[in-house]
Amino acid sequence: MADVRALRIGGFSRAIVWRPWWRVLAVGVALLLSLSSCLALGKVPLGPTALWHALCTPSSDTGLIVWQLRLPRILLGALVGGALALSGWLLQQVMRNPLASPDTLGVTSGASAAAVGYLSLLAADSGSAWLPLAAAAGALVAVGLVYRLAWHRGTTPLRLVLMGIGLSALLTAATTYLLVSSAFSTTLSAYVWLTGSVYGGNWSDVARLAVGVAVALVAMGALMRHALLAGVDDALAVGIGVRVQVMRGALTLLAAVLAGLAVAWGGAIAFVGLIAPHLAKRLVRIPGTAQVVMSIALGAIIVMLADLAGRTLFLPRDLPAGLFVAAIGAPFFLMLLIRQVR
Amino acid sequence: MTRLSANDLTLGYQRQVIMRELSLALPESRISVLIGANGCGKSTLLKALARLLTPWQGQVMLDGDDIHHQPTRRVARTLSLLPQHPVAPEGITVRQLVSLGRHPHQSWLAQWSEEDERQVELALMRTDLTAQAHRSVDTLSGGQRQRAWIAMAVAQDTPLMLLDEPTSFLDLTHQMEVLELLKSLNRESGKTIVMVLHDLNLACRYADHIVALRDGAIVAQGAPQAVVTRERVKDIFQLECRIIEDPFFHTPLCIPFGPGSRSVGGESGLSGQGAPSMQTTESSSQQNMHTGSKHVTAGWEIDG
Amino acid sequence: MNAHGRWGQGRRARRRLLAWSGLLLLAMAVSLMAGSRWLGPEALWHALWSPSPTNVDDLLVRTTRTPRTLLAAVVGASLGVAGGIMQTLTRNPLAAPGLLGVNAGALFVVVMLVTLGGDLPAAVTHLGAFGGAALAVALVWGVAMRRGHSVGPLRLLLAGAALTALFHAFSQALLVVDQQGLDSVLFWLAGSVAGRPLAGSWPMLIVALIALVACAPFLRQWNVLAAGEAVAIGAGVAVRRLQLVSVALIVVLAGASVTLAGNIAFVGLIVPHLARRLATPDHREWLPLAAVIGAVLLLLADVAARTLILPREIPLGVMTALLGAPFFMWLVRRQGVQHG
């Protein structure tokens, strides 16, 4: 019983896979380290003691920088990254394919089309306050459409993925048209959004996203058993009494909501949803709680560090985090493709 | 006695009918084997019996109720299923895989009870996989993997087990291993086993009850000795053959003839009383008889 | 497919090809006539054979519409054939340059050159587009052909989709960093055959045409390859060499298309399907037909793109995606229903 631990309290029982627990612990430490380095670094670099001082006195100058500027932005990045990573892990599980990601189901392209449409058609009148809502709605509508189109007496992972690719192409074309036909300044702001960033994250953004992610995490906890079962093929799943279509629908919805939330606040940060679960699977081979925790932590770390790079490497410019996510992700992704060749 | 039966079953995919108004009752605590040529509908029938396929007409009855009207979890506590090409989630360990079989017995609250753990360890033991339990399913050999799937069905702890070609892609040793395991499950725990097998001789050896299908209809069913005859094999498989009695197990043994076999056998080989080639078989088997098992009859007759 | 049966069908195939070639001429004529100003056949005739340097219509036809028409025809044919070869090579009916990241790869290199290199001569950008296309094809090739047996459609397409996303992410990032580049790159992004003077496009047009003709000797070998690599080896086809040549042809055809017209999606997917449906599965019949159908489709799509929302234009790449994506989804649905 080295690999599966039993947790039993009265009638309540769970099997928990914590085998490489020290790796999970290491990633936890890495998460804390990257959080503190993100807090310390920036236009005004702070040493450990200065950082401690700033944290203790929120009303001082450095305290204001840390508490009002850096911390909310960092937390927003971490939440966005964690949500995308979890969404990617879920979809890879549901689609039974290591190359699936929130992009695959049309989440990103749906949100992008809605956001760019909003920016070029409505933003002039109503400001950009409703942009997150538009993006999230776009993401969910796109996933709903993909699901509907792939439905024929139930869905299969193959049809879902293919429909997702088809609809993504359509939505990308629409986005391109909006970009080409709208004013140049709109195109620029749309591009920043499409690259993905956590610019100007404040506490109210963090609070709203945190509530959404917390609700999704509770749902995830309840569905954990089914998330593991999703990797089993349909015939076998029916054999052990799983209502396959209900399970697939619920898990896909959860993944779509998570990605929609993340995209609403972080823009179309590509690749976190593909890379973070992959790294997690390399560190924790056995699917289970440890792998999920690892994915979330890695997703958070990736976006936090990418944002840190974006705002410190090219001072005085503040570049979108999505740029560095792509830069970090590319070599990894190529490695992945080459590994698939073997 | 029967727990699983089909009434007037009409099955098909899209617009294509596979079988019409088929009725079948499977004997309890016996090993039933569905045989037939490729495309005769045996896998389709098994899928329908396992509720993977909704019949166009008719019902599959499990314990007196339509299987499609029962909650799928309740069915899963009575009937387990091993499909033809099962897919395991990436990276999953053998123990995790086997414990998936406990799903129908678990609730949201209790997902890993002591009973679950006991049944999983028992299933691992029965399939001789305890030493491999911590390994990833991807790293197992073909025979071990097949045993792991069977262990999952065993952990499900159901009185009925349905298996679709559990021996396909296995070499002879592993085929025997799997079938022996299923037989012991049947003999020791009284499980009802229904499976599709390709190998007619192995089917005859291990089945208590054979159901022969052709073009989506049942041609014959019953004990192997009664079902497997030269005419039937010709009817089902479009194959000339000779049926002899297995010298060790007394089950029918089918010796197929192709067009070329005739010339080897001298005379036609289909009408003759024993072509030369068959006599050599006889003598070699008789040699084996002395060294082999005890229940051997001296002479064996040619069926048909 | 055998040598004997071929001639009986061959006549029908030739007639079919001839009919579509007629249609191609018609589409070219329509493309020359249609636009913000509709010109009748007479005006067209006049512009083509006895142009006067002062007549506005003649100028319009000769300097704007002729290059556009030629480009659309050649790009359409190239994409149709490139998609067809790709589908044969990967043994995957859903393979196409656009879906597998080839367009995005070429686009990425162009964006990189424009944003980082500033004002480069057109030839450098063109070569860059080729390089990007080659890189993407090499990656897809690596994924699709793992030691001899082809991978499932899902993995190939997901790899292509991820590759596309990667290249797009990079292109977007570069454009965010260097905003001056955005304006000059939008053309590539949206795909268009408008406003490209022939003077700069001649070399690529010729390259594409040569590549199209160069496909001819391999048609029979592709027939064998379509039956599977092992079968092809058994039949004495030098499979590795054939695959390399095919990949090279795909790179040239798709690369030239992107260079000439930017990101044009779905033509490479749809056209081979139409061609196979109209002809037999014999490459000698359907691949030439795919070239002609591709040209006709892209010409018509271009005519639609420039006339539907006058006085503005829909970018051609957007137009083909709007037409092609529903077709793709229909294809998936139909196949999905067939295979349960």
UniProtKB/TrEMBL annotation, chain A:
GO terms for cellular component: plasma membrane. The chain crosses the membrane at residues 74-92, 104-123, 129-149, 161-194, 206-228, 249-276, 288-309, 321-338. It is found in: Cell membrane. GO terms for molecular function: transmembrane transporter activity. One of its GO terms (biological process) is siderophore-iron import into cell. It is a multi-pass membrane protein. Keywords: Cell membrane, Membrane, Transmembrane, Transmembrane helix, Transport. SUPFAM superfamilies: ABC transporter involved in vitamin B12 uptake, BtuC (SSF81345). Pfam families: FecCD (PF01032). Belongs to the binding-protein-dependent transport system permease family. FecCD subfamily. This is Iron ABC transporter permease. It comes from Salinicola corii.
TrEMBL record, chain B:
Residues 264-304 are annotated as: Disordered. Keywords: ATP-binding, Cell membrane, Ion transport, Iron, Iron transport, Membrane, Nucleotide-binding, Transport. Residues 274-291 have a biased composition (Polar residues). It is found in: Cell membrane. It is a peripheral membrane protein. Pfam families: ABC_tran. GO terms for cellular component: plasma membrane. One of its GO terms (biological process) is iron ion transport. InterPro entries: AAA+_ATPase, ABC_transporter-like_ATP-bd, ABC_transporter-like_CS, P-loop_NTPase, Siderophore_ABC-ATPase. Gene3D superfamilies: P-loop containing nucleotide triphosphate hydrolases (3.40.50.300). PANTHER family: IRON(3+)-HYDROXAMATE IMPORT ATP-BINDING PROTEIN FHUC. This is ABC transporter ATP-binding protein.
TrEMBL record, chain C:
It comes from the Bacteria. InterPro entries: ABC_BtuC-like (IPR037294), ABC_transptr_permease_BtuC (IPR000522). GO terms for biological process: siderophore-iron import into cell. SUPFAM superfamilies: ABC transporter involved in vitamin B12 uptake, BtuC. Keywords: Cell membrane, Membrane, Transmembrane, Transmembrane helix, Transport. The chain crosses the membrane at residues 69-86, 98-117, 123-144, 156-177, 197-215, 245-274, 286-308, 314-332. GO terms for cellular component: plasma membrane. It is a multi-pass membrane protein. GO terms for molecular function: transmembrane transporter activity. It is found in: Cell membrane. PANTHER family: FE(3+) DICITRATE TRANSPORT SYSTEM PERMEASE PROTEIN FECC-RELATED, FERRIC ENTEROBACTIN TRANSPORT SYSTEM PERMEASE PROTEIN. Belongs to the binding-protein-dependent transport system permease family. FecCD subfamily. This is Iron ABC transporter permease. It comes from Salinicola corii. The lineage of its organism: Bacteria, Pseudomonadati, Pseudomonadota, Gammaproteobacteria, Oceanospirillales.
